[in-house]
Write a structure and sequence with these properties.
It contains six helices and two strands. By secondary structure, the chain is mainly alpha-helical. A hairpin with a 5-residue loop joins strand 1 and strand 2.
């Protein structure tokens, strides 16, 4: 039995069928806060673009979405040159990654590869 299921109590109806699952409150809170939600996946085509061309994740996403640097920069409220510098980096600060992700319409974790 794993840690997630060992403290669960199953309540059954008169016919013996599972009706409710009672879990510890802390586990319930973790579930409703989304801690157990899987991270969004990264499409293989985006990974291939990045790896085949030695591009950053940000550039691979931008190219996949057929956006220009100027368009992404405009969405971020920065200059094209400032965005170009960010995009050229293999690793980006979390705050910048979040802004780029929003501009590209992806989850920030999808830029972390």
């Amino acid at each position: 039995m794993n840690a997630l299921t060992e403290s669960v109590q199953i309540l059954r109806d008169a016919g013996g069928h599972p009706t409710f699952a009672v879990i510890p409150f802390a586990d319930y809170q973790a579930l409703i806060k989304g801690k157990d939600k899987p991270k969004p996946r990264i499409p293989a085509v985006v990974v291939d673009l990045a790896m085949d061309n030695e591009w950053s994740a940000a550039r691979a996403w931008r190219e996949r979405k057929e956006l220009t640097q100027a368009e992404v920069a405009r969405r971020m409220g920065v200059t094209q040159g400032a965005y170009a510098q960010l995009e050229a980096k293999k690793t980006i600060r979390k705050s910048s990654r979040e802004k780029i992700a929003k501009a590209l319409g992806v989850h920030e974790s999808q830029l972390d590869f």
